[in-house]
Design brief:
Blueprint lengths: L22 E9 L1 H13 L4 H16 L8 E8 L16 E8 L6 H16 L9 H10 L2 H11 L7 E6 L6 E2 L2 E2 L10 E2 L5 E6 L2 E10 L1 H22 L1
Parallel strand pairs: 4-8, 7-9
Antiparallel strand pairs: 1-9, 2-3, 5-6, 8-9
Helix pairs in contact: 1-6, 2-3, 2-6, 4-5
Length: 243
Amino acid sequence: MYKNISSVKGKTKFPFSGKDAARKRILHEVLPRETFLALRKKGKENGVSVNDLILTAYVRGLYEICDVDKNEVLSVPCMVDLRRHIQGGTSYGFSNHVGFMICGMERCGETFEDTLRLVKEQTQKAKDDRFLGLYSLPLLNLAYTVFPQFIAETAIQIGYTNPYLGMSNVGIADEKMAYIEGKQVENIWMTGGIKSTPYMQLSFICFRQELNLMFAEKCNDADAEKLKRLLNRIKEELLSYLA
């Protein structure tokens, strides 16, 4: 559990053009209810989760948009809800307890189904690990226990590599709680923090059985268009699974 999981084989970066004229924005696409239910149904029939399907579409989109050779390594860190390790599986209040796991792709499959099989192997291996999401946390605790804070933070900055790519499944927003002064909210979407180049992260959340896909990024207009293209590519890949 003391190993540094931030050190990954794949060093792929999204092809951002630069920081000129950058501004904060959230890029957002929605998969309608019918499509989401069809994906969930077919995935269940084939023993894969919606998370696996989205990760597969994301990986395939990254190989294309980032112009990575299909036989090269690509690593995607995925956020893990650490409340899975809390007795009862929950915590009080509106809180965020996350670690991450690495989906390390040795190659991209020729088809969606081939890539899905490779992704499923990675995610299943992670799910079978009783310490999922907890790696490196004892290392952080040791640093802050042994050293003064300023030394601990310096050591962490030297040893920790912030991942260039990421994915976060925010989960399902409870429709029963989505009311403002008695009025039903039309849609809810949430992301992680707004990333700055060269870092980026796909976030997604389900509300009323609609799937919201998002990038929260500080970037210029040209890079926003690239991120939109990646969102559309993810949607196309998911639809291809249903074809």
